[in-house]
Please model this.
Amino acid sequence: MKFPPSLPRFPWIYCNGLSFFVAKLRFSWYIGAKQIKGTILVNKKEKAKAIIDILKQRYDDAACALHYAKDYELMIAVRLSAQCTDARVNLVTPALFAAYPTLEAMAAADIADVENYVRSCGFYKHKARDIVLACQMLLTDYGGKVPGTMEELLRLPGVGRKTANLLLGDLYAVPGSVVCDTHCIRICGRLGLSTGKEPEKVEQQLRKILPPEESSDFCHRIVLFGRDCCTARNPMCGECPLTMYCKEFNPQA
Model:
């Protein structure tokens, strides 16, 4: 490279050296940040494993709280549970399933009649419509079976990622199925396992730290824990076995 006679070489060398120094500093910061992020991720995985072990001791049975006997009945029950308690759904579904005892019967049901059965679950018009249309799609598109992939499930009326993950985990034992309901989002935030309140973002965060084979049962246990201990309004911190990990109770956790 040629320089103008009036410009000495050393300023260029100095500037080039400074640029190299800045680039090296940035690279060192980047590597350090990656290492810190990796350490945080490892720490969260260790914390998640410890929390899973404690919840397993407290809740030996991690079964879904919704009552069902057939795969499509679980799909229906989960749809009804939106903005409604599982206890209320379990009161409603016996009469609904008795009135329409087969998938074919449910698919052929009059939506207005289904509305009367599910009225107490809230948003009954939307839920009744989704139930009947989803059952029809199961017959026409999926051979009368609830499908076993996220892509197929999301095509069904009224089925979002939360419902799809629950169906994949409970019906097909698909590893990595993370059901991000309000209990999961709230409690995982308190425990420092996740940040934010957007279900899909929390789902992705938990997928990175939960053992895939434990994720579905973990979410069921978190629901149980959120009902009998870490309630939204009056958490029983004095009886909680997870206070050492709770950022609300222990800001240093």
Summary: The chain is about 60% helix and 0% strand. Confidence is low (pLDDT under 50) at residues 7-15, 30-37. The longest helix spans residues 9-58.
